[in-house]
Amino acid sequence: MSNWPFRFLHASDFHLETPPFGVDEVPDHLMELFLAAPYRAAERVFDAALAENVDFVVLAGDLLDSRRTGPRGPLFLVEQFERLAQRDIRVYWAGGQIDPPEAWPPSMRLPKNVFLFAGGEPEQRVHRRADTAVARLIGASRLPQGRIKPQAFDPEHSGVFSIAVAHGRADIESIKASRVDYWALGGHHSRRTLCESMPTAHEPGSPQGRWPEEAGPHGYTLVDVDLERNVELKPASADMLRWETERMVVGEEHTADDLEREMAGRIESLRQASPETDFLITWHVAGSGPLADALRRGTATAELLARARDRFGRRQPAAWSVAVSVEPPARHRAAWYDEDTIRGEFLRQIERLSREPNESLDLESFLSEASADGPARDLLLKIPEASRTALLREAAALGVDLLFGEEAGS
């Protein structure tokens, strides 16, 4: 049993040195928010620690690369740590690959409420409330190759709840076999729970998504521990800009107006779920028919993107459309496959290759002589089935458009 129920905040991967990226252009009205997003999201984490009156804060690495932030990054963290110190909230920080203890500027002293775990072998610290042990924290900074060895984190004593703090990768079975109650991990930018209980192993993700692949809410996790050592995770959002990916399917009868109405409905749903968040949306359109064909050829896609940006992207908060892409159809119009034309022969060949996954695509013949015996050839010879399917669909769509231009939509 634990002597006290308690609550702590678990966060990681602030990456203050990296503003969001991965867009062709940043609109002027969002430029300031792009640059400030990592800091403002991190500040929300500390705001939450104060608002929730947590017992302590656990930071699991990669908060900043001080070489890239310059003085701004360390000054920001010191300011936030001092806010916590005023409320007697301690911080336990295990550095990751970019923020080991030796990377902290020696001229900038950390406040006394912050304990930064050393590199190498894990250190153990006991967190106390009124001179009574509440939790034992075992942490290490900048593990070699980012590999966590769970057995090295076993607590010296089992009398109080134990928390391992580390940034990197670990074998799940080794974590399950450890004597640690809670694994406060960092290194994965999207929130995930590796083990639900006995022990709990959790990564809160980054407070701010950095690029379109990091879609969905980002933030931190509040952790409640009761007298029986039961753990309850309470994820919360902190992101200033939220990446979203939306997929829409169109058919033969759909028009551009239908598609825009669908986009408006999706945006309204996002805003209702998180009314104070600015969204960065990537749209994927799938399906077949005249609208899909027109979008696939490019001009209609650019026009749709421009209209979406004008209609939704300049409000406060914004729903900015990053890109519109069109997925190639699984199959083109049935009549085309029966044609006695170049198009018909081409599509029949694609269909045959799709049905026979073991038949070579002979892609290596397109390599230059310099690449014929290198790693590029090996990759082309070992295309995964899913990639092969996507490649053939892309080839079919491109071939139809190139062979017949505007006739492809007829």
Structure, described:
This protein has 410 residues and is of the alpha/beta class. The chain has three domains: 232 residues, 4-Layer Sandwich (Purple Acid Phosphatase, chain A, domain 2); 86 residues, no CATH class; 76 residues, no CATH class. The chain has eleven helices and 15 strands. Strands 4-3-2-1-11-12 form a six-stranded mixed sheet, with helices on one face. It has a six-stranded mixed sheet with strand order 5-6-7-8-10-9. Strands 13-14-15 form a three-stranded parallel sheet. Helix 1 packs parallel to helix 3 and helix 9 packs antiparallel against helix 11.
Taken from the alpha-carbon principal axes, the silhouette is elongated
Number of alpha- plus pi-helical segments: 11
Number of domains: 3
CATH architecture classification name of the largest domain: 4-Layer Sandwich
Mean pLDDT: 90
The main sheet comes to: 6 strands, mixed
Judged by helices, strands and strand pairing, the structural class is alpha/beta
Q: Runs with pLDDT <50, length 5+?
A: none
Spatial strand order of the main sheet: 4-3-2-1-11-12
CATH domain topology of the largest domain:
Purple Acid Phosphatase, chain A, domain 2
The level 1 CATH classification of the largest domain is: Alpha Beta
The CATH superfamily of the largest domain appears as: Metallo-dependent phosphatases
Number of strands: 15
What is the helix content? 25-40%
End-to-end separation: 73 Å
Rg is: 26 Å
Instruction: Spell out the helices and strands N to C.
Output: EHEHHEEEEEHEEEEEEHEHHEHHHH
Strand content: 15-25%
